[in-house]
Amino acid sequence: MDVLLGAQWGDEGKGKVVDVIAPRYEVIARFQGGPNAGHTLIFEGRKHVLHTIPSGVFREGTMNLVGNGVVVDPVIFLKEVRALEAVGVDVRSRLMISRRAHLILPSHRALDAASEADKGKAKIGSTLKGIGPTYMDKTGRNGLRVGDLSLPDFKERYATLVRKHERLLSLYGRSDAPKETEEEWLDAVQQLRGFNTVDCEHYLDEALRAGKNVLAEGAQGTLLDIDFGTYPFVTSSNTISAGACTGLGVAPNRIGSVTGIFKAYCTRVGSGPFPTELEDATGEHIRKAGHEFGSTTGRPRRCGWLDLPALRYAVMVNGITELAMMKADVLNGMDIVRVCTHYRVGNTTVDRMPYDITSGIEPVYVDMPGWSSATSEGELPAELVRYIETIEAAVDVPITLVSLGPDRKETILREGTHVQ
Ligand code: GDP
Ligand code: IMO
Ligand code: MG
After folding, report:
1. Which of 1, 145, 261, 262 has the fewest Cβ atoms within 10 Å of its own Cβ atom?
2. Opening angle at CA 115, ends 183 and 361, nearest 5
3. Which residues contact 358 (CB under 8 A, 6 or more apart)?
C-alpha cells in the first residue's frame, strides 16, 4: 500500500495528485479526518470539491474506501454523493464505508462551536464541522459508528449521546443541541444505510493479497497532526503516514512508497504559528495569484515562503520517499523567491523545528532567482529547475511530480511524461 499525504498545513493539492495517479491503483482509501477536508479536482473544464469521498471517485475501475479512521457527517456525505451523481458519477458502485468509521452528530458541531467561542482569541480556527468533539467521543468510548446504524437500538444510543452533549453544552452556557438539524441528520442516516459498508481491514488485506494496488489518501497535513503538528493549533487525528495504518487497519510493513505533497510556498488556514508567514504585499500577491481561499470554508489562507526545516520534519516523521511540488506557477514573474533553510533561535542557528515555534524563532532565508513563466508545456525554466534541485538536496528526497496549474493535465511527471 502506498501513502499520499500533505507535508505542510493542508491544502497542498492532495486531491489533484490523487486524481492524477489514481489510474495506477485499484483502491483509494481515505484514512483520517472528515469534512474538515476539501480536496479540489479540476478536469474537462469542471471543478469538484470532495470532503469525505476519496479522490479516486472519478476514475472508472477504482474502488474508493472511507476508512475506519475517518469521521463521517451523513448530511455532508449525502450532499457530496448527490453532487457527484448530478454530474453522472456512479458513486454507489465505487464507494465503500468502514463500519468502524465514527459518525459526526449535529450536537458535535454545536460542541465544536461552543468550544471555539469559549476559547475566544485563543481559538483553533476550526472548520466547525464537529471533528474535535467526534474524535473526543471516539477516544472517550462514547461514539456512534457507521456499523451501529444496523442495531435495533440505534435511536436510543443516539438519544443517550445527545443527552450527554446537552450536559456539556450547558457547561458552555448553551442550553441545547440544535434540534432544527436533527431531522435532516436522521433522514441522512436512513439513506446512509443504503451504501456498501465493509470491514476495511479485511477488505484491504484481501485486496493486497490479491496483488491489487492500494493508495491511502491523507487529509490535512503533517503540521496539523495531533501529535506532531503545531499543537494545540492542529486537527484531532494523526495525519502522518502512521495514521494510514491505524486509520485503515493495514500493518506498517505493508507500506510501500510515501508521497509527500507540498506547495512551492506555504499556506495555513486558521490560527497557530507560521514562521515564514508574509503579512505584506508579497503574501497578498501569492494569495491572489494562488486563489488561496479555503475549499471548505472560503476563508483566506495565510501565505508565506517555503519552510525547509518544516519540510525536512515532514520527510522524517512520515518516511516520505518522494515529493510532489505544487503551484510553482503561482510564483511566476517574481524576481526573487525566498526559501527558509534554518531558524535562528536566540544566538544559535538550527535546521530542525524546535518544540515551540510560537515565538522567539526567526527564519533564515536564501534568495533564489525567480522564473518568468513555468507551465506544463515545454521545458521547465532553468531557475525553477534550480529551485527544485535545491529543495531535493536540502531534504534528500526526489521531487517526482511537478504541478503547474490546477487542471489534471497541468502536471509533469519528472521522467518527462505529461499526464493525459
Ligand atoms: P487539498 O486539500 O490538499 O486537496 O488541496 P485544496 O484542493 O484544498 O487546495 C489546493 C488548491 O490549489 C485547489 O484550488 C486546486 O485546484 C489548486 N491547485 C492544485 N495544484 C495547483 C497548481 O499546480 N497550480 C495552481 N495554480 N493551482 C493548483
Ligand atoms: P485538507 O484535507 C487546511 C485546519 C483548520 C484549523 C485546524 C483544526 O483540505 O488539506 P478542525 O476543523 O480539524 O477542528 O480544524 O485545522 N484544517 C485544515 N486546514 N486543510 C485542511 O484539510 C484542514 N482541515 C482542518 O483550519 O486551523
Ligand atoms: Mg483542502
Report:
1. 145
2. 140
3. 273
